[in-house]
Amino acid sequence: MKIIAVMTENFSLYYDIVKILKKEKLPFLSLSFEDKIPPNVGVIITNKSEKDKVKFHSVVLVEEDIPRAVDESQKLLSGKDMFSNLIIGIDPGKRPGIAVLGDGDVIQGFQTDSPEGATEIVKQILELYQAQEIKIRIGHGAPTYRNRIINAIFPLKIPIEIVNETNTTHKVDWDDIRAAVDIALTSGYLIKSPYQVEPRNGELKNIQRISRLESDGAVTISMKLAKEVALGNITLEEAIKLQKLQLNSI
User: DSSP of 157-207, one letter per residue?
Assistant: First the structure.
């Protein structure tokens, strides 16, 4: 398996590149310009000012848009410009895991900070890869988060399937990205319209419980604010501040 190597003497840039690679759980090597390049390296990330020092056939230059450079590196590692079939698997949750499969091979994995953040990742994937057929598969669990994701990506007009995760082979210790791979590999049923987002009482009560913990017991946000958090209209931190303001105004 070919991997990414990072080659730069710019410590700040190196730190930022490695941070993204670790976040996306990508294997990589750190090399100096004097090091012999191992045979398992498929692409090297460096910057424009140091490119002449890199003696390698596959180089990606990065200055500011590091995530884009990492994406481009993964594309080069895949060795393909056009796929017959591209599947984007999404494991729904507060921080969704996303996996990209090209003709059955895993070519990329992501984890987003919010359900709506999945939309930007999907857009990046569609810009980066070309395929004769593209589909999105999302797990059926976490209905509120799942439906928020569906509603956010539905305007992209890519076929979306909901996968019954109980029929997949998830392992207890699998992370969200690996779960997304499993979802991508499982057929589901095609949805035809956006879904209504209606958080359950249990979800709202859990958000209230978390607000109590996050505020060190100072406040418990109202059910109304908890619903706004569940819908993604405000963050939990914003809800706690609003609840404190309401208490102070009494």
Answer: ---EEEE-GGGS---TT--HHHHHHHHHTS--EE--S-------HHHHHHH
**Strand partners for 3:** 41
User: Domain extents for the chain?
Assistant: 3-78, 82-190, 201-248
Measured CA angle at 169 (ends 163, 170), to 5 deg: 90
- CA distances to 28, 38, 183 from 165, in Å: 31, 40, 7
Say yes or no: do domains 3-78 and 82-190 share a fold: no
C-alpha distances out from residue 148 to 57, 94, 97, 145, Å: 43, 10, 14, 5
pLDDT digits (tens, 9 = 90+) for 132-189: 999 999 999 889 999 999 999 999 999 999 998 876 554 433 466 788 999 999 999 9
Q: Is the distance from CB of 162 to CB of 136 less than 8 angstroms?
A: no
pTM: 0.69
Please determine, looking at this structure, whether the domain spanning 82-190 carries the CATH number 3.30.420.140: yes
Superfamily classification of domain 3-78: Response regulator (3.40.50.2300)
- Which residue's structure tokens are 């988060």? 145
* Distance, CA of 201 to CA of 224 (rounded, Å): 11
- pLDDT tens digit string along 21-63? 988 888 899 999 999 999 889 899 999 999 999 989 899 999 7
